[in-house]
Design a protein that fits this description.
With 399 residues, this protein is α/β, with parallel strands linked by helices. The chain folds into two domains: 180 residues, Rossmann fold (3-Layer(aba) Sandwich); 206 residues, Rossmann fold (3-Layer(aba) Sandwich), CATH 3.40.50. The protein is 34% helix and 26% strand. The chain has 14 helices and 20 strands. Strands 13-12-9-14-17-18-19-20 form an eight-stranded mixed sheet, sandwiched between helices. It is elongated and about 80 Å long. Bound molecules: cytidine-5'-triphosphate. The site of cytidine-5'-triphosphate has 14 residues, from helix 12 and strand 17. The site of cytidine-5'-triphosphate (CTP) has 14 residues, from helix 12 and strand 17.
């Protein structure tokens, strides 16, 4: 992800039992090319040594607010240095202190002095502590002051209890960090995204599908969320985790995708149809497994509904964006779909190339509108998704 390269991230860690997982976060951030520094509370150093953080991430680690050298005052210098402040994991104690303006150790002093907008906090604790109204109130206070709160997840906790309080996947925290650095140019916009393949059943154990991994659609859903919009993602079967902050609706068939997307279509400002919807389905899937028979088996397929075309017929003010997977005559075929489905833009890519497109983490596309063509060179799908949204914001005046 290009967005995080060279960004200055100050990771503040506190004494929650999930702290060892934040070592992985430090390591991931380093791999993403961020400039990282780490600050620890005294309690955190009892659980994980500063040496561990420094070794895995190459970051300088700070613990003592009194370690002033030649006028270099840790909390003022570090808070000035950072582009983004991340507190992960944050104990109930640190959440309360930051919410109430207590500054009694290096981490809380930094939080007090930090003035930029990008600040992320990840509360993790026992489920009974997390559901205590005082924690809820403190988190609301932080949200009101512009903190991005990444909620803990449900599951078994270190204390043996089960409930909400677990440290989320580091990938989710990285997403929240990226989001905190972006302008909210799509604030107030509702964005509907489709992703992945569909599966058309032949019998209970067999289906027809395609090679779409869903990566491009999930990247678009993430990017739209990072730019501040409300995102509904209708996804065919994929192996991808639910993107942070996105409402995910999982479907299997083209027909189910049609039903779910149409529920959200009218209320959407932007529709990004990245799914590889099957054009044909078995007319009558059978309820029992088909047994092996003679040499030939003929399946009769019927056309599925063209969801995008239907949207094109029904649209009023929505910006409707199609995706076009082509193996030949890319621009010509895409322009024909743009016209036929009454789209505002179409994003076309060459799926015959092995280095981009289906299953790949990178893509190269051409965006066509009524009055122009824009080529976006090969790049990671998340960066491409941001570039596509930048284009739409400019072209359709969302900026
Ligand atoms: N699409 C759709 N419903 C379908 C088929 C396609 O909504 N039943 C949408 C896709 O999500 C994509 C666009 O239409 O945004 C173009 O899909 P593509 O498969 O490239 O084109 P088709 O219209 O199916 O035409 P062809 O397969 O002949 O290229």
């Amino acid at each position: 992800m290009k967005l995080l390269q060279g960004k200055r991230v100050l990771l503040c860690v506190t004494g929650g039992i999930a702290l060892y997982k934040a070592v992985g976060l430090a390591s991931s951030l380093r791999k993403l090319g961020v400039e990282l520094k780490v600050a620890m509370t005294p309690a955190a150093t009892k659980l994980v040594s500063p040496v561990t953080f420094s070794s895995v991430s190459g970051a300088s680690v700070y613990v003592d607010e009194f370690s002033v050298h030649s006028g270099w005052i840790p909390h003022t210098e570090l808070s000035r240095w950072a582009d983004v402040l991340v507190v992960a994991p944050a104990t109930a104690n640190t959440v309360a202190k930051i919410a109430m303006g207590v500054a009694d150790n290096l981490v809380t002093l930094i939080a007090m002095a930090f003035q930029k907008e990008a600040k992320v906090i990840v509360p993790t604790m026992n489920v009974r502590m997390y559901s205590n109204p005082v924690v809820e109130e403190n988190l609301e206070r932080l949200k009101a002051r512009g903190w991005t709160v990444v909620e803990p997840v449900e599951g078994s906790l270190a204390c043996g209890e089960v409930g909400k309080g677990r440290y989320p996947d580091n990938e989710i925290i990285v997403d929240a960090i990226a989001a905190s650095l972006l302008p909210k140019k799509f604030r107030g916009k509702k964005v509907l995204v489709t992703a992945g393949p569909t599966r058309e059943h032949i019998d209970p154990v067999r289906f027809i599908s395609n090679r779409s991994s869903g990566k491009m659609g999930y990247a678009l859903a993430k990017a739209a969320r990072w730019y501040g919009s409300d995102v509904v993602l209708v996804s065919g079967p994929t192996h991808l985790p639910a993107p942070w902050g996105v409402k995910l609706i999982r479907v299997e068939t083209a027909n189910q995708m049609y039903e779910e997307t149409m529920k959200h279509f009218k209320g959407s400002h932007i529709v990004l149809m990245a799914a590889a919807v099957a054009d044909y389905a078995v007319g009558e899937p059978v309820s029992k497994k088909i047994k092996k028979g003679p040499e030939r088996l003929v399946l009769e397929l019927q056309r599925t509904v063209d969801i995008l075309e239907e949207m094109g017929n029904q649209k009023d003010s929505q910006v409707l964006v199609g995706f076009s997977a082509e193996t030949h005559d890319l621009e010509e075929n895409a322009r024909e779909k743009l016209r036929k489905k009454r789209l505002d833009a179409i994003v076309a890519n060459d799926v015959s190339r092995p280095d981009v497109g289906f299953e790949s983490d990178e893509n190269e596309v051409v965006i066509l509108t009524e009055d122009g063509v824009l080529t976006i060179e090969k790049m990671p799908k998340i960066d491409l998704a941001l570039a596509i949204l930048d284009f739409l914001a400019r072209r359709f005046d969302f900026d």
